[in-house]
Amino acid sequence: MTIWIWDAETGVISGEPLKGHTDWVQSVAYSPDGRSIISGSYDKTIRIWDAETGAAVGKPLEGHSESVWSVAYSPDGRSIISGSVDKMIRIWDAETGAVVGKPLEGHSESLWSVAYSPDGRSIISGSGDKTVRIWDAGTGAAVGKPLEGHSGSVSSVAYSPDGRSIISGSVDKTIRIWDAETGAAVGKPLEGHSEYVSSVAYSPDGRSIISGSC
After folding, report:
1. Pairing of strands 36-41, 25-30
2. Cβ count within 10 A of residue 97
3. Which phi and psi angles does 63 have, rounded to 5°?
4. Record: fold of 2-153
5. How confident is the model at residue 200 (pLDDT cuts 50, 70, 90)?
6. CA quadruple 205, 207, 209, 210: dihedral positive or negative?
7. Are 158 and 115 in contact, with CB atoms under 8 Å apart?
8. Within 10 Å of residue 101's Cβ, how many Cβ atoms?
C-alpha cells in the first residue's frame, strides 16, 4: 500500500514512502517529464503524486469498479490510461484528473496491461482473454481485430520505439511479436521461460527485447 522512490545511482531510498492507497499498489509510472508519478491499486483508484515532494496531487481518480492493474502516461504527459479487472480501459486528463470520453470496452476478461504507442495515437492492451487489442487513442475505437495466438492470459504489452512492432508476454510462457499496422504475428513465439512471463520491454534502439518471468 506504499510507494518507494529510490536513488538509482546509490540504491538508497529517497525520501518518505508515498502513502494513500488502501490496498496493494499494482502498477506505477513516471510522467515523461519526471515531475509526476501515477499509481494504480487494488483499491480501484489511480493516484497522482508530486515526484519531488511525494505529496498527493488532487483526489484519487475514481471510476473503475474493480482493481486497477496497469497505468501509463501518454508520451506528451497530458493523458493517463488505466486497465482494470472490470475489463475496461479508462483515459484520464493528467492535469485535472477528469475522465476523458467513455471506457474502452471489448475484452472479455481482466485487463492486465496497457500502453501507449510512441506517437500517442494508439493504445494497446493485454487481457486475461488471451488477446492483445489496439485502440485509437483519440476516439477510443478498437482498431482491427484482436491479436490472437497466445494460449494463456496476456500479462504484459509494449510498443517498439519506432511504433512498428508490439510485443506481448503471456501466462503461456512465451513472448510474441506483432506487426503494429497489420496485427499479424511476426515469426514464431519466443520460448525459453519455464513459468509465465510477467513483463516485457524493448531496448531504446529497438534491437533487443527483455522479459521477466515468475
Report:
1. antiparallel
2. 17
3. 170, -30
4. Methylamine Dehydrogenase; Chain H (2.130.10)
5. very high
6. negative
7. yes
8. 11
Nearest to 163 by CA among 145, 140, 179: 179
Q: What is the identity of the amino acid at 102?
A: K
State the cell numbers at 193.
Answer: 521461460
pTM: 0.95
Instruction: Sketch the domain layout of the chain as residue ranges.
Output: 2-153
**The amino acid at 78:** R
Q: Is the pLDDT of residue 1 over 90?
A: no
Q: What is the pLDDT of residues 10-47, one digit of tens each?
A: 888 888 899 999 999 999 999 999 999 999 999 999 99
Per-residue cell: 106: 471489448
Cα–Cα dist 64/72, whole Å: 15
3-state secondary structure (DSSP) of residue 30: strand
Stated as kind and residue range, the H or E segment containing 184 is: none
Q: What is the DSSP letter of 64?
A: -
Count of Cβ atoms closer than 10 Å to residue 103 Cβ: 17
